[in-house]
Amino acid sequence: MRIGFNARYMHHPSRRGFNRYTYSLAKALTRQAGVEVVLISEDPIHSSFLSDLPAEVIAVRGVRHIWWEQAILPRLISDRRLDVFHAPGSIGLPFRKACAYVLSIHDVIGRAAARFLPKQPWTIRAQHGIREWSSLRSADAIITGSTHAKGDIVRWLGVSPEKVTVIPDGAEEKFRVLDSAIVASAKARFGLARPYIFYVGGFDARKNVAALVAAYAQSGAANDADLVLAGEQTLEAQQIAHTVKALGIESRTRFLGYVADEDLPALYNGATLFVFPSFYEGFGLQLVEAMACGVPVIASNRSSVPEVLDGAGILVDPENVGALSAAIDAVFFDRDAARRLIERGLEVARHLSWDRAAQETVHVYRDVIARAS
User: Fold this and answer.
1) pLDDT bracket for residue 111 (50, 70, 90)
2) Could you read off the pLDDT of 69-110 as tens digits, one per residue?
3) Bridging pattern class, strands 100-104 and 84-87
4) Digit-coded pLDDT (tens) for 34-57
5) Confidence (pLDDT) at 323
């Protein structure tokens, strides 16, 4: 079975979002018997993805991306005699069929939570609309990470429920409980001498980091622990930094910036608790990573988050800063409560692996191949 992936996001070394999903699923698929993976991209794939991913790589430039996707990509698929072509980034399938097509749609933020997104120029919206229409029309099957996301896909995109398969994401093997010496070394390198409350992810309005900062500022835990925020230093991150300064917690708040993948498991492990107050998630991979690393989780009670946590975290209304602050104190000062959350989190995380996701994805591939033939 030769499986092609639209790997256009993998030109950047970041392993968050679409990059994490594409890399992790493709790598797990290479461990499945009889599966060959071909990565097809418009730009060269970053070398950091290829050191442990045994896949054929095809990189062919195009004049414009939409031209590459609609004219060049179908030819590349045909030339490589692929059985299935998989677009893992919510769009990215050509209209012209060259084999069976599978599409992963992670969320429909642009419709279900559009208020959190900045207004884009009409040209970008039009191009995205064309690519989305093409992908939805061409897809023989759609994969998504949660039943909540499936419901949104059916509701907002008008897709038949029978066409959508729920396959939860997983945590890579590196996200696990680590030896204390490894954790201590990482904390020393990042200058984390005190206990800390951890967040990793984006800083856009949907992620609701401003509420986390405000909740931390009024919590009792702020006297004994720092707030550590990891993620790319975007304009939104700078705005959060202004809020931190206005609240007078600058000395107790650390912005780590982008954290390399090899450091992230130790930072999860070193945290006293992980807080994820997002308004909307199609899945929320950080939740699984945190649980797998043995960290108690506090998260919002919106979208797919309760489904992913499955009873392994404290759920809070993300608009209620007081409730979020109280939850932080409840976990930070009650080690028995924290221990129960850790134990349940480890149990949930054990059932969420990329190998399991790959096995279930292969079932989808076999189904679309059988229908295509």
Assistant:
1) confident
2) 999 999 999 999 999 999 999 999 999 999 999 999 999 988
3) parallel
4) 999 999 999 999 998 998 899 999
5) 98
Class of residue 211 by CB neighbours under 10 A (exposed 0-12, middle 13-18, buried 19+): buried
Which letter, b or e, does each residue of 19-38 get, where b requires 16 or more Cβ atoms within 10 Å of its Cβ? bbbbbbbbbbbeebeebbbb
Q: What angle do CA 169, 174, 177 make, to 5 degrees?
A: 105
Residue 206 one-letter amino acid? R
Q: Find out whether 74 and 96 touch, Cβ atoms under 8 Å.
A: yes
Question: Residue written as tokens 């993948």?
Answer: 261
Domains along the chain with CATH numbers: 2-170+353-372 (3.40.50.2000), 180-350 (3.40.50.2000)
CA atoms within 13 A on the CB side of 257: 2
Query: What Rg value do the Cα atoms of the chain yield, rounded?
Result: 21
Whole-angstrom distance, CA of residue 214 vs CA of residue 289: 25
**Higher per-residue pLDDT: 230 or 64:** 230
Identify whether the C-beta of residue 273 lies closer than 8 Å to the C-beta of residue 338.
Answer: yes
Q: What ranges in the chain are assigned the alpha helix state H? A: 17-29, 65-67, 73-79, 109-112, 122-138, 147-157, 180-189, 209-217, 235-246, 264-270, 285-292, 305-309, 321-332, 335-350, 354-372
For 297-318, what is each residue's pLDDT tens digit? Answer: 999 999 999 999 999 999 999 9
User: Which residue is associated with the tokens 């809070």?
Assistant: 316
Residue labelled with tokens 């030819």: 75
Other CB atoms closer than 10 Å to residue 67's CB: what's the count? Answer: 12
Angle of helix 209-217 versus helix 321-332 axis, rounded to 10: 60
pLDDT value, residue 293: 98
- The pLDDT value recorded for residue 124 is 78
The model's pTM: 0.92
